[in-house]
Amino acid sequence: MQKEIIVLLGGPGTGKSTLINELVARGFCCYPEISRQVTMKAQEQGIEQLFLEQPLLFSEMLLEGRIEQYKNALEEPDNVVFIDRGIPDVVAYMDYIGDEYPEHFTKACEDFKYSKTFILPPWEEIYQSDSERYENFDQAVKIQDHLIETYKKYGYELIEVPKDTVENRILYILDKI
């Protein structure tokens, strides 16, 4: 079997981390979203929202971390690896805020390709803000639009995961792989 590196994507609060946690509980190899760690590390240094205050620095750190996740996933003994958010997310967020970014952001999106991409739609009933998620639901929907546009620009076919129970969403994803 060929290595499958599968990304779960979607705007903030769509249930990606919940699904990753459930996949881990079922024994799958999964890599968590790293933006929370980057944000929390900056908060420990007194920067409340690194993405808002220094978006390019934040995005550089995310890009580096996501490339490292991808490379590590290639080395995993498991044939299937799930990742919470992918490299093109970095470009989508920079486009969302309207900031420019270096060419190596685009090159990374072209060089590191995922096997499958599952997108979780905005879902107001499960959406929650917290100390690392500053966006409101309307902003989350706009981010979703940028994610769709960005992933399609890099040639991905997005498989939409229906709004349903965690169990049914997991079964849907596993059925598609």
Automatic annotation (TrEMBL):
One annotated GO molecular function: ATP binding
Annotated coiled-coil segments of the chain: none
ATP-binding found in the keyword field: yes
Keywords carried by this UniProt record: ATP-binding, Nucleotide-binding
NadR/Ttd14 AAA domain segment(s): 6-169
Keyword Nucleotide-binding recorded: yes
Signal peptide as annotated in the record: none
InterPro entries the UniProt entry points to: NadR/Ttd14_AAA_dom, P-loop_NTPase
Protein's recorded name: ATP-binding protein
Source organism: Flavobacterium ginsengisoli
The organism's taxonomic lineage, starting at the top: Bacteria, Pseudomonadati, Bacteroidota, Flavobacteriia, Flavobacteriales
